[in-house]
Write a structure and sequence with these properties.
12 strands, elongated, 6-stranded antiparallel sheet, alpha+beta, binds (2R)-2-methyl-4-(7H-purin-6-ylamino)butan-1-ol
Length: 269
C-alpha cells in the first residue's frame, strides 16, 4: 500500500537527488571549460610564439592562481607529444629522462607523452610518460583523434590512490578544420592538456555542504557498459530492494561515456 508518507519520502528523495546531480554536473562543466581555456593558453603561448613564451614557472603560477575555476580537479598538467626519433634531443634539452608512471626510465616506445608543465598540486607527474598508464593512454589516443575533451573510466589516481577520472584535451600545432580526419589530427598533435577529477575527495566535499546529507547515500556510476556499471563515487550499497531509490542522469560532456547518480535513504523512512 502506498501511503501518503511514502509518497512524500519519494518526492523528497527525488528532489535531493536531482539537486545533487545538477550541482555535480555544473561543477564538472565549469572545470572542463576552464581546462579547455588552458589548452588554448598552451597553444597560444607555447606554440604560436617562437621561442615559446611559456615555462614551468609561469604555468605553475597561472594554474595556482586560477585553481578556484576548477573546483573538482586536483591539478592540471601539459604532456608533450615526443616521437622516438626526437627523444634524445628532447631529454638533452629538458635535462631529464622520460620516466614511466611506475617511475622507471622509459623503455623504447614509438612515441611518448612526458609531462613538461604541471600545477604544483600534481608536480609528481612531471617527466612521466602519460602514455605508460592504460587509462591515460586511451584518453590521449581518443582525444587527439577526435579533437574533443574525453574522460577515462573511473580508476585509482597516482599518489592519492583516490578513485577519480582523468580529463584530456588535445593541443594541435596548427588550426584544423572542424572536419579534419583522425589521421590529420594525429599528425598535427602537439600534446595533451588535462587533469584528474579527484571524485573520491572533492565530490565528498561538495555533498557535505548540502542540507540533508546525513539522510541520503549517494553513488555515481559510469554506466557506459550498461551491463557492467563501474562505481565512480560512494561505497557500493547492499542490494536492498526494499529501500527507496532514485536515479538521476548525469552528463559530463563526453558522449562516449554515460554516467548516473543513484540516491537512497540510509534508513527506511
Ligand atoms: N593527472 C593526475 N593524476 C593522475 C593522472 C593524471 N593525468 N593519471 C593518473 N593519476 C596531463 O591527459 C594529459 C593527467 C594527464 C594529462
Amino acid at each position: 500500500m502506498r501511503t501518503e508518507s511514502m509518497r512524500k519520502a519519494e518526492e523528497t528523495l527525488t528532489s535531493m537527488c536531482e539537486e545533487r546531480a545538477r550541482m555535480l554536473q555544473e561543477q564538472f562543466a565549469v572545470s572542463v571549460n576552464h581546462v579547455h581555456a588552458l589548452a588554448i593558453l598552451v597553444s597560444t603561448f607555447h606554440y604560436q610564439k617562437s621561442p615559446p613564451a611559456l615555462d614551468q614557472e609561469t604555468f605553475a603560477d597561472y594554474t595556482a592562481s586560477t585553481a578556484f575555476e576548477r573546483p573538482l580537479l586536483n591539478g592540471v598538467a601539459y604532456a608533450q607529444r615526443v616521437v622516438h626519433a626526437e627523444r634524445q634531443l628532447f631529454e638533452n634539452q629538458q635535462g631529464w629522462m622520460i620516466k614511466t608512471m611506475k617511475r622507471d626510465p622509459s623503455p623504447v616506445q614509438d612515441e611518448y607523452a612526458p609531462v613538461i608543465y604541471s600545477q604544483e598540486t600534481v608536480s609528481y607527474i612531471e617527466a612521466l610518460d602519460m602514455m605508460s598508464g592504460e587509462e591515460d593512454r586511451e584518453n590521449i589516443l581518443r582525444a587527439r583523434a577526435t579533437g574533443k575533451a574525453v574522460l577515462t573510466r573511473p580508476f585509482r589516481l597516482l599518489e592519492s590512490n583516490h578513485l577519480g577520472v582523468v580529463l584530456t584535451f588535445p593541443v594541435y600545432l596548427l588550426d584544423l578544420p572542424a572536419d579534419a580526419t583522425a589521421e590529420e589530427r594525429v599528425r598535427a598533435t602537439a600534446g595533451y592538456l588535462g587533469g584528474a577529477f579527484d571524485v573520491e575527495s572533492l565530490v565528498e566535499n561538495l555533498l557535505r555542504q548540502l542540507a540533508g546529507n546525513q539522510e541520503i547515500m549517494v553513488n555515481v556510476y559510469d554506466v557506459t557498459n550498461a551491463s557492467e556499471p563501474l562505481i565512480m563515487y560512494g561505497t557500493n550499497p547492499p542490494d536492498d530492494h526494499m529501500l527507496l531509490s532514485h536515479v538521476s542522469m548525469l552528463d559530463f560532456g563526453d558522449p562516449f561515456r554515460k554516467h548516473q547518480m543513484k540516491c537512497r535513504y540510509r534508513e527506511k523512512p
